[in-house]
Design brief:
The strands form 2 sheets. This protein has a 6-stranded mixed β-sheet with strand order 4-3-2-5-6-7. A 3-stranded antiparallel β-sheet has the order 1-9-8. It has 4 helices and 9 strands, in the order H-E-H-E-H-E-E-E-H-E-E-E-E.
Length: 183
């Protein structure tokens, strides 16, 4: 994708959720997480690169003791369809006996999040939770009925970008949740 086509992608897309509603959803998640985790001494793991914007805005609203780490594992690169999981960076924090919360931009089919959760279990995490900005509502989850513990926004089954979600490597910085025309 070239710069001109990247520009067209935004102007020709559908804005599904505006920035004010995204900010409100993150604030709501922070309240829910604070109520549930304030005494848990959790490790919050940002799933890169998509979870970066969400995690950055969420973390400043969580006013209780916690550790922060990150993982970089991807199935997509700049493609529409996922392939085998590619581990780039694994968490460095000792997870043994800890409550772990995975922070990601989206729960779509859940293959990547499920694999990261399995890794955390193998490292001895006592409890694993998921917090996502966006959850797609469809029946193709890796585990039937899979849901995040904390969800900001629920949307239909379209190709999304903005607020951490990318379109062919672009528009993670878009100020809202957008859907690509025709996808």
């Amino acid at each position: 994708m070239n710069l001109e086509n990247a520009g067209k992608a935004l102007t020709e897309s559908d804005l599904l959720v505006g920035e004010a509603d995204v900010v409100a959803a993150i604030a709501r998640i922070a309240e829910e997480m604070t109520a549930e985790l304030k005494d848990a001494n959790p490790v919050l793991i940002c799933c890169m690169n998509g979870g970066l914007v969400f995690a950055g805005q969420l973390l400043t609203k969580l006013v209780f003791p916690l550790h922060v780490d990150y993982v970089h594992a991807t199935r997509y690169g700049h493609e529409f369809n996922g392939v085998a999981l590619d581990w780039k960076v694994r968490p460095q924090t000792d997870l043994k006996g800890r409550t772990v919360v995975l922070l990601d931009d989206i729960l779509d089919e859940g293959v990547t999040l499920a694999a990261i959760a399995d890794y955390c279990r193998q490292q001895g995490a006592a409890k694993i939770m998921m917090a996502v900005l966006v959850e797609k509502l469809h029946l193709r989850k890796v585990t039937p009925g899979m849901r995040a513990d904390f969800t900001g926004i629920e949307v239909g089954d379209r190709f999304l970008f903005g607020y951490g979600l990318d379109y062919k490597g672009y528009w993670r910085n878009a100020p809202g949740i957008y859907a690509v025309k025709g996808h």
